Amino acid sequence: MLVQIHTDKNIEGGSRFAEYFTTEIKNELARFDEIVTRVEVHITDENGNKSTPNDKKCVIEAKVEKKQPIAVTANADSPEKAFFEALEKMQRVLDTTVEKIKEH
Questions:
Q1: Phi-psi region for residue 22, left (φ > 0), alpha (ψ -120 to 50) or beta?
Q2: Least confident piece of the model among 46-50, 52-56, 57-61
Q3: Can you tell me the distance from the alpha carbon of 41 to that of 61, in angstroms, rounded to the nearest whole number?
Q4: Ramachandran quadrant class, 14 (left: phi over 0; alpha: psi -120 to 50; beta: rest)
Q5: What is the mean pLDDT of residues 64-69?
Q6: How far apart are the first and last CA of the chain?
Q7: Whole-number Å distance between alpha carbons of 82 and 104
Q8: Could you tell me the pTM of the whole model?
Q9: Strand ranges of the sheet holding 36-45, from the earlier edge strand across to the other edge
Q10: Quick one: which of 36, 37, 41, 58 has the most CB atoms within 10 Å?
């Protein structure tokens, strides 16, 4: 599974940030390795330098073999919180997708 982490100019990413999120994705989504070929994470600060509640946004998109890509979104006060909320959503969606694949 290929993992790509993208941040906007308002989020301090850095290599440790990307390594940490990549490790978390590989650990949490490991059971989907056979159907997920790539995961892209986009983390943005929707209000730039302004500080407002829930202005950090995380979109996680998973490329699933022989299916349309799946995307989930979460907003929170910090990039980390938004990431983990989106990751949790992605796990639920992939669980449902696997169940549907098994039914066919």
A1: alpha
A2: 46-50
A3: 7
A4: left
A5: 90
A6: 24
A7: 34
A8: 0.91
A9: 2-7, 36-45, 56-64, 70-76
A10: 58
